[in-house]
Amino acid sequence: MFFKHTTPADAPIMARAVISTCRQNGWSNEIQPQFLRIVFHSLMSYDCDFETLEPISTEEFALAMPEPDKRNEVLDLMLATELLCTSISPEISDAINLWAQKLAIKNNGLALIRDLSKQLVAQAQQDFYRSNYFYDADLSSPNFSQLDQKYGLSATMMTMDASDEVATRYENLQKLPDGTLGRGLWDFYKKRNFNFPGVIGGINEAVAHHDWIHVLADYDSNGIGEMEVAAFSTMATQSESAVMNFLGTLSIFQGGLLKTIVAGAPHLGHDMELINGPERIAIALQRGKEVSIDLVLGIDFFDYAHEPLEDLRRRWNIPAKTA
């Protein structure tokens, strides 16, 4: 999880742990301490100097934080901090993996950062796309195993077999009144010339789930918007796989190391490097934390497609977007 079990009282130990692995002989990218400063301030009400903060040993950390869930969240933050970078040194990857080993932490993000540090991009794609909450939904599809065998990794994200029934279901959202969730999704796709699920060249229904969240949270589909919706989603669910989605999205759109299999043109990264980029991610994390319903697990947004978007936002305690 991400900031689900840790509390503001844990912030000093968390901060020291992250710099112990990720800062080493200096930050790899100036956005790392900036990101940490803003996230700790916004979510933990904690301020410190991430340039001069003293590191902590694994032994001292283990005594201060014995809870496995909290330890895993600290590791998530280490991974997120390092995946902001355009290159990841094997030394830092090894340091994070060593912490995980000493603290008995199992985390799917460890393989991702290890493979990216070795520039094994194809393997890193496997790490990411097969540990993502989209993949959890793929596995529940009755014909996914056949598609996976035939098309490989593309089947985890894309429509590989056309389905008029599926495409029509999405197209029919046009018939709903303006201001409803369903009409909002239809507009979201049409404005961007996206193909609906069921149409070759479009994403599949598992991935389309996150587009409903784009609409609910009012995030764009550009690089910073994708990072925002991933941050928001990881806080608005109990799904561990949503954390992996957030981590990989940081690497795709900010670090530029992990390559998406969805977009036609490659993303070069640096999309968080806006005047208020890290602030927007912190706000998205905080907004997601406030949500009163799980937006990833056990929800079919078609059940709510006819309802006014603003009513759903109020009912599910989705804070108004401020940035």
UniProtKB/TrEMBL annotation:
This is Uncharacterized protein. It comes from the Bacteria.
